[in-house]
Amino acid sequence: MYPGDGGRLGQLDFGAGPILRDRDSGQDWKGWGCYPLVPWSNRIPEGRLRYREIDVVLEPNHSDGSAIHGLGADRPWVVIGQSDRSATLSVVLRTAPYDLHARLSYDLCPDRLQLHLSVTNVGHSVVPVGLGFHPWFRSGMVRLPATQRWPGEPLPTGPPIAVDGAYDLRGGTIPAAMDACFTGLTDSWADVPGARLRWDDSVSHVVVYSAEPGWLCVEPVTMVNNGIALADRGEAGHGVVALEPGCSMDLRVDIERATSA
Predict the structure, then answer these.
(1) Is residue 49 within 8 Å of residue 58, measured between CB atoms?
(2) Sign of the CA dihedral 201, 13, 216, 45?
(3) CATH for 23-257?
(4) End-to-end Cα spacing for the chain
(5) pLDDT tens digit string along 80-99?
């Protein structure tokens, strides 16, 4: 665990070898471990956030000029509780229009690591929020029970369509190079190399990124890529939550020991 690097999980090994790309890989903050996505997942193009009465420009932090992966993954978190099998961290995310307190906990069980991410709006205005986790796995088989995907990579260009061809991951396959956002989930888990991801009901989308040789990401998230813009336009299925002052939102994801085929 690396509190100073976005509160992320650096590595995980269930006895069959490490399953994540670790800090020593030479990547920047976006490219290793498993980190929380808060208060949005994926990216905001050009950093331009428009939502209801909000119209602000967030500082870009990605090569395409977007504001990517939220506000928490590249900031230090504070450890507020720990034991030999658990840790709880927190961070204040205060960048207009957001004024949030986020909390992240890790609890290690014999066959799984439980991750719990929550965010509370301590400001005075409604803000658009989505949560997620961004793990980097070694390349391998992925099984994802998703019946639909959003066309366009990485940003949607239309409403969801049925999965087919290389985008049908329901039977389990090594993904072709893609940066796709899936929805229409029929179950609450995905098989990834070395583990199974399991999530709660707040997850409505899963991003699969497999464009880097040797590595892939399978990201359970609560909103579609560029979901804040879709929500502002009134398009369906965006998954963005309008978080009222004083209210909270939670996400729970388990990383489990891999199951038998």
Answers:
(1) yes
(2) positive
(3) 2.70.98.10
(4) 30
(5) 999 999 999 999 999 999 99
